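Board notes, transcribed. Complex of a protein with shikimate-3-phosphate.
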Amino acid sequence: MPMTSSRGKALAGTVTVPGDKSISHRALMFGLLTVGETRITGLLEGEDVINTAKACRALGARIERTGPGAWTVHGVGVGGLVQSAEALDFGNSGTGCRLMMGVVGCHPIRATFDGDASLRKRPMRRALDPLELFGVRVVAQGEGGRLPITIEGPRDAVPVVYESPVASAQVKSAVLLAGLNAPGVTSVIEKEATRDHTERMLSHFGASVTVTPHGAHGRRIDLVGQPELKPAPVVVPADPSSAAFPLVAAAIVPGSDVTITGVMMNTLRTGLITTLIEMGAAIEQLNPRIESGEDIADLRVRGSRLTGVDVPAHRAPSMIDEYPILAVAAAFAHGTTRMRGLHELRVKESDRLAAVADGLAAAGVDYAIDGDDLIVEGTGRAPGGGTVATHMDHRIAMSFLVMGLATDQPMSVDDTGFIVTSFPDFIPLMRRLGADFA
Ligand SMILES: O=C(O)C1=C[C@@H](OP(=O)(O)O)[C@@H](O)[C@H](O)C1
Ligand SMILES: C=C(OP(=O)(O)O)C(=O)O
């Protein structure tokens, strides 16, 4: 469904965004890999995560929803997965698909992975390459290592030391999850530290995992295979990648004053907040606390005069999903914002570099792409008046709806249908803050 957003009054109020998508996928998968009952609260009930729950069921878990965001998983344990007769369909979700390839990888079963038209375009060799080192066999794959893909796990998996060629938490996690059912120590070396939710959850469920610094920005993770995971409750904090939308909306709409409660502040996820503060955004972190091993805080943000900044490439993993909405903030800043090292944006739900560029063009904003860098020329205002093609990409849809709240003329997006993958109540939540979406 198309939608149009228009400039109106200042945004105001206090909201809570849904649970973190990365942690929600992992909580279900760890539940599957644990014998006994795993209780999850605050689970993101978006389509991506629901597809992961369905796949966990197909692989042997009993999963119940006991209330809003409250789920219990009765798992089968590491080594206990059952073969599914049906293909596992991950819809729009790279995380669900790639992590589950790791979960299944070292089990001696056959599994077929599939997804929607967007996911079928995304590269999967980045997960299959390391899985083959464990002894996993790729039985069938689409052209260029695309979905649908069938793999078969070995009877005698061997542990792996893998230096990841891409800064990707999905690849790192696939390797670690596969290493769970290989004897001995599996290690991943990453040149750039990426989100560490898998490592944290491995410890939380009783596995032996050590993390050591590697080089200037990287890490080495060593995991002892074939542990008996112990059920542990998971409280999912609010998703900083979803908080990004009301956060930027409040920063660019003059006079706004919005508080977003209980947002996860894991420093491997807070690159956008760091950048917005550098740009001059009035963001206060209130009531900092630790819940379920994650730092969280309430974020108060007010309408701000933003200035263009240079965003270093090494910050990209800590805000990889936030560049579309940062580009929107940059359009309303005064001066040039250069975002460096964005090559990974080309392999998300859409080619986000191209989709953002087209969206900025539709809004009459000057920009340039220089190699892997996006340069936005902000003038403090943007004409708007265009329609943005969202290409089955939730973040493109939400970013340009936010943009229309501050452009001179309304902005339209061609399809809001994919917002349900990560932020099902985005539209009502933004309307409660005063957003004019029609
Ligand atoms: O591990 C995860 O939960 C995620 C990792 C990131 O992907 P990459 O690992 O491909 O960078 C991110 O874009 C995705 O939304 C969630
Ligand atoms: C890239 C994203 O997700 P995934 O890779 O799981 O599809 C995202 O949510 O922005």
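Residues 93-95, 321, 348-349, 395, 422 surround phosphoenolpyruvate (ligand 2) (CB under 6 Å). The chain is about 30% helix and 30% strand.
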